[in-house]
Structures are given as C-alpha cells and as structure tokens.
Amino acid sequence: MAIEIERKFLLNREKWEEVEKPLGEFYRQGYLLTDPTKTIRVRQTSDKGFLTIKGISVGASRAEYEYEIPLQEAKELLDQFAVAELSKIRYKISIGNHLWEIDEFLGDNKGLIVAEIELQNEDETFNIPDWIGEEVTGEEKYYNSNLVLKPYQNW
Question: What does the record list as coiled-coil region(s) (predicted)?
Fold first, then answer.
C-alpha cells in the first residue's frame, strides 16, 4: 500500500513575505468524492494532470495513490465531474534533504497559506525554517477536501 506521511503548518506571514520565493505554479484541483474516510481528487497544473485517491488520515499518515493523467483529461474531469473545486499557487522550497510545498490559496480560501512537508516516517527529524508557524497536522479544517466545502473566508 502507498502511504503518504505529511505534516502541515501555518506560516509566519511577516517572515514568509521576506523569503525570496521561487516561481509558484498555479494548481486547479477538484474532488470527484469528498467523504470523511476517502477522497478522489483531480489536479491540473500548467502542463500535467493527476488523479489521486487518498484514505483516512491516522496521525500524519494515510494511504495515497496518485497517477499522472493527460492534461486534457484532467480538464474534462474537473469541468464535468468535480463536485467541488479550489485553486492555489504552490511554491516548492528545498531545505536540507526535504522539500517544503507552500500553498497560497485563491478564491474563497484567499488569505490562507499552508506549508507541507512529506516524510519517510512520522518520527523523522527535519529543519524548520523560521517562516513556519503553528503545526496544523490532523486538523481537518485545513484538509483541501474540507476547504472546498467550508472555505477559509467562511470561518
């Protein structure tokens, strides 16, 4: 079984604004299924499409299966089958041996910025940059699949 181990954090906005950022990439993603125990997501980037199936989170871990699909099919799935959708700009920053993915949400989630780091195991140590704030791993309101149903601007 494919397992994703991911920790999620809010950012210190003042320090994040001072960071020299790489070029961000626009992501459009929609959900074909949003269930508390599983999600099926379609994601479109500038040049690729992905179909992702995720299971329920237990701590920082959950089952995840991700498949690259043709970009045009991703667009069609989003347009014709997504029950809910969001968009964001993703920045990728390498620190030490880890990749931080920072999502700056758009639309009804504008104002929310979340950083994620994927790990090999839940006890793995990693460097935390000074622009990282409070950890929100496991807080369901920050799951993308919940942000499409209960957007940040409505909190």
Answer: none
